[in-house]
Hints:
homodimer, alpha+beta, Jelly Rolls, four-stranded antiparallel sheet, 8 helices, 11 strands, globular, DNA-binding
Amino acid sequence: MQAKVASLQPHGDSGAAETPLLDKLGRFVVLAAADREIIARVASERVRGFAAHEDVVREGDRPQHISVILSGWACRYKVLADGRRQVVAFFLPGDVCDLNVLVLRHMDHSIGALTPILVSEISRAGFDTLMGAHLRVAQALWWEQSVANAIQREWAVNLGLRDATERMAHLFCELFLRLSLVGLVSGHSCEMPVTQADLAEATGLSPVHVNRTLQELRRLGLIVLKDKTLTIPDLEALADTAQFNPNYLHLGQEGRHLDANDR
Amino acid sequence: MQAKVASLQPHGDSGAAETPLLDKLGRFVVLAAADREIIARVASERVRGFAAHEDVVREGDRPQHISVILSGWACRYKVLADGRRQVVAFFLPGDVCDLNVLVLRHMDHSIGALTPILVSEISRAGFDTLMGAHLRVAQALWWEQSVANAIQREWAVNLGLRDATERMAHLFCELFLRLSLVGLVSGHSCEMPVTQADLAEATGLSPVHVNRTLQELRRLGLIVLKDKTLTIPDLEALADTAQFNPNYLHLGQEGRHLDANDR
DNA sequence: CGTCCCCTTGAATGAAGTCAATACGCGTGG
DNA sequence: CCACGCGTATTGACTTCATTCAAGGGGACG
């Protein structure tokens, strides 16, 4: 009755945690050594750290660079005039924060650190290098951006029609798979370094109800969450209660035909 | 107390309704005559009609072309295994349905007509022509895509933290401004050719509650909605109750510095 | 040892959903 | 011309899910 969850197995814990971006891009296109080298170089030009709760970019800013998360978690959020906050995306290691700041000049939202983070700041010039010099890299970046958009759409679905339990379960499924892409799950566990209040802002629930929802998921034996560590004993089962369909993450090696070595 | 709504005046009813795409793109970059000509040509190669409620593309498909709405309204939606539907975007005349189908091969959602529509189907080849031949056009398409993503984010905010009244009001503000971009508002009125059930799927509310919410907005004198026509007597007032901040639509002529004639 | 942050729990309230009945147009065909 | 059916809009009564308010507990850290 549930759509196929063929690719629910965590993906490649092969990836080295130091190069989450390479891990991710390499999952879509087959990068040549030169490609990998140039990504690594551009992405290490300027590295910056932020403390938890610090803003990386703020609404209204006109950033001159793109940020890539190297370690830690961040989020994209918007604030209404009366202070209500909604997190509309989580950024995990390897995620590119905002490719389109280069075309939309003013930020229409903010990006904040959820935990202490390290980000690589890629300048316009560095970006042009990436996009121009190597076709495969440009394609990979486009793909990463497209997947981010797809995730954004799925969040709308999550907020629009899933109840609290499904919503939390869905978020956990997504984060678990995304973390597995960059080698950050081990066995059935991954880090979950955010507070219940953070989860509340991401799911549109109240902190109190997040707490109750987590207890419900625990009671059902679907998750173990303790000491900032999430364990999912049975991912299929969790996916089932979440009505989670991983297709929107486009994990299917869709771009593997774009092989840098096949010319 | 409300963020500046400087650009709340409807934009340029100058645009001819026959060329909504040109209207929109021309709002970002200044297109040369040759640019306009090539867009018009590519966009008129293959035109197709769909009846209301017909699907333009379905989840799982691998479309070989990009669709641009010429007339009528469509939507992007997702369906859960148990049949629950969530609309995650409205497409109005001039909107490009999905630039990234060219990189993400399988559709992770469907696109359906809300009213009878005419779409222009741009093939991969036509798309390459657009992107390759004229830098300005490529930039304009990127911009259109980026704005679409920004809108998607705002929908998440809408679903996550606004109550029913604010949510409906917000949707109306957005649609009104987007329609004004393509010359489809006259005075304080625009078409609203969708049913209350459609609005329900877009706002994550039940049809019954949409009805009550509409009555509430009418009672407050914020909208007149009758015979598929929406009239907003006081856009500022509606925007205020919606906590609507138009910045995410990026109406500010941000790309006007990209002038095709300034070389 | 106190303070702060985070998590937890309970009880009361409220917003939106569900169910069900009714009403209104509108086109179709008898 | 009228009866019928269908999709859409409306209304009322009841239920449910989630929020709010308020209080207490536990651990980390100065």
